[in-house]
Amino acid sequence: MDANLPGGAWASDREYCPTLTQAGRDMLERLRSHPSAPRYRNRSGNKLLAEEVDALRAYEREVMEAGIGWSADAPPPWLADFLRKTYAAVPYYRACGSPPARLVDVAPISRAELAHDIAAFVPDDADLARMINFQTTGTTGHPLLIASHPLVAGRYLAFHKRALQRFGVTLRHGAGQVGVMLLGHQRRCFTYVSVTPTMGESGLAKINLHVDDWRDPDDRARYLDAMAPELIAGDPISFAELLTLPMAHRPAALLSVSMMLLPGMRARLEAAFGCPVLDIYSLNEVGPVAVYDEQAGGHVLLQHGLYVEILDAAGRPVPEGTRGEITLTGGFNFCLPLVRYRTGDYASLAHGPHGPVLVGLAGRSPLRYKTIHGGWINNIDITHALKPLAIAVFGVHQQGDASVVLRLAPNAMPHEDQARALLAPFFGAIGVEVLLAEDKIIQYTSDLREAVA
User: Considering the entire predicted model, what is its pTM?
Assistant: First the structure.
């Protein structure tokens, strides 16, 4: 074993990638040993057994062919059986008694319940020896331990392929090629190399674009060009950094996950890389939920085994077209089956030729902001106002005296004057500060007691 490899719980790559062949070993060596490679600080792998690789291929075919056409009046046919099994096998729900005849009679849960006792939401028959646990902090104040499994992690690719299919992209990279490069841009970032067995052991790497992880900052573009990944996935922050690199390689697509992607930033990425840029709404608890499609008017659902409701503050379903909290039942994580899980994200739900569509998706609780005219606007109005800006992330805070401060990342400060002009009709003169946070932030905050709509 290379003495320069980062430490880990196991001594060989085969223990991270049980089906690893010589071709896979060669790919890992290529990813690690290139002269421009970053400092990989961790070790990880797909952990898939041979029979699980076969199961994933079959699952992918199911996902690609599945239709999603339910409505509130005609719930999906699998829902009743899912409730019955979940109430029988999951301790939290079993303690509630028999499953109600109607889903609407189940009390919704939130991230707080999962954070309090995640074990109560894991089915009795879960294979604990094969379980994966990882922690996510999010922006809600509730650190959360997620129960998962190698098969669950492997299923993400099927839904990403379904999303790509909407935009005419089919992933083809296999043996000897790098399929996916995952980007981060943080001072501390989990980085590793692996292979994807369902794609002929094509290479997969999680890299950190922060200069501290590289011997030479110019190595970032050189490495990406040399590896030539077919798909690059990241968030708006890491993509903003990617735009600063003199990279010649053009991937088949970019996948933006984790944070809201403003249309201005999406347009800038599409112009720079000449490929589709997909905005994926994804949650650690349930994986990829939906992909934005302008033709559909919002985020089109991706999971055929996921049922979506839109609830008001009291937990009641709202009429179609009314904004409320996105609430999920089902999902493909069999280690964490969820019933009426309130996500903390907001949208309205529409039904049409594209199936169920989340319209006006906005992360976290809606806030309202007091304008200079004495009225109130919703935070979604601010999002719409800032759409022309090609910026990765921002924060808007209203102080107790109703003055507003816009926080922009250092590389977005050249947009300061345009941002002031876009928000002036609402707030007049605003303050602009440098946003120093490198990880997720709560974009909309207020000191006004009346701000919670």
Answer: 0.82
